[in-house]
Design goal:
By secondary structure, this protein is mostly helical. The chain has one domain (about 1-280): ABC transporter involved in vitamin B12 uptake, BtuC. Helix content is about 70%, strand content about 5%. The chain contains eleven helices and four strands. Strands 1-4 form a two-stranded antiparallel ribbon. A two-stranded antiparallel ribbon has the order 2-3. A hairpin with a 2-residue loop joins strand 2 and strand 3. Helix 1 (about 1-30) crosses helix 6 and helix 5 crosses helix 6. The radius of gyration is 19 Å and the shape is globular.
């Protein structure tokens, strides 16, 4: 029982980061019906911005907000330079555009910056732990879970209490009807990308803190985790994105602890098999979302 509780805490810490990533993916999908495979590049760009700041002598207290700002700006730039050009195109065109951005950003850093790993210091408290009875809890997991709860609360407040949130929810339900009712499509889409960038920036802080380095392909893994979590929860559902992220994090930690040591490295393969089975028996994900047809 103690081991199970320990794994649940570890899984919630990891799943909280996945939930933030999935939430950003779900926001964009809800408005544009776009599964954004360029979402991870926000972490790549933020990681290099953070590395440059560390080289200039900055501390994590300054780098953390910088990462969030860079992520938001990068998201808006990607929308302006790429997705705004293909707005109204087919879903397949939007998907190819997101893949193109993903590979282009990696190639730019690979060719014009460096292919080598860029390391930076991790906060000293990342490896600290404290005890709750027989449980040993990482300070990092506690901070991640706490910040995620606050971020989700702020996101819910924005969506429920502001005119932007009302417009965003209306656009997610039926974009064409919302536009006929006076919702400005450009403002909603850019606002969605800004919100997505904010969520990715919060996730990037903790992803980079734990990794302690960045590379041209640093965004690939978080992009995959975010997309998978969004798919597990049900594309377009914000609650589903959170649920999918937590489920993915818990599945990884629990499987890694229960599988024999000789096959523990196959954890991600087993997780993919379980996800495939989920999609076979429940292709809509954990939460069913009704989408208006995109035209």
């Amino acid at each position: 029982m103690i081991e199970l509780l320990q794994n649940l805490i570890d899984g919630l810490g990891r799943g909280s980061i996945y939930a933030l990533l999935a939430l950003g993916v779900a926001v964009i999908f809800g408005v544009m019906h776009l599964l954004n495979f360029a979402h991870g590049e926000l972490i790549t760009v933020s990681g290099y911005a953070g590395y440059a700041a560390f080289q200039a002598g900055w501390s994590w207290y300054l780098v953390a907000p910088l990462v969030v700002v860079v992520s938001i700006v990068t998201s808006l730039v990607i929308e302006r330079l790429a997705f705004s050009r293909v707005r109204g195109a087919s879903d397949f065109t939007l998907l190819l555009t997101s893949f193109g951005i993903h590979f282009l950003v990696s190639a730019i850093f690979l060719m014009y910056v460096s292919a080598s790993v860029k390391s930076f210091p991790r906060p000293g408290w990342v490896a600290n732990t404290y005890s709750i009875g027989p449980l040993t809890v990482e300070v990092f997991d506690t901070v991640v879970i706490g910040v995620t709860i606050v971020t989700l609360a702020v996101t819910v407040a924005i969506l429920q209490k502001t005119m932007f949130g009302l417009a965003l929810r209306a656009a997610a339900a039926d974009f064409d009807a919302a536009r006929l009712m006076g919702v400005r499509s450009d403002s909603v889409i850019r606002g969605a990308f800004a919100l997505s960038g904010f969520l990715a920036g919060i996730a990037a802080i903790f992803w980079l803190m734990r990794a302690g380095n960045t590379t041209p392909t640093a965004g690939s893994d978080p992009m995959l985790k975010g997309v998978l979590a969004a798919l597990i929860g049900g594309l377009g559902s914000l609650r589903g994105a959170v649920l999918g992220g937590l489920a993915l994090g818990l599945a990884e930690v629990l499987l890694r602890s229960q599988l024999p040591a000789s096959v523990a490295e196959l954890t991600e393969g087993v997780v993919f098999v379980l996800i495939a089975l989920l999609f076979i028996f429940r292709p809509q994900g954990l939460i069913t979302v009704a989408h208006a047809e995109r035209v």
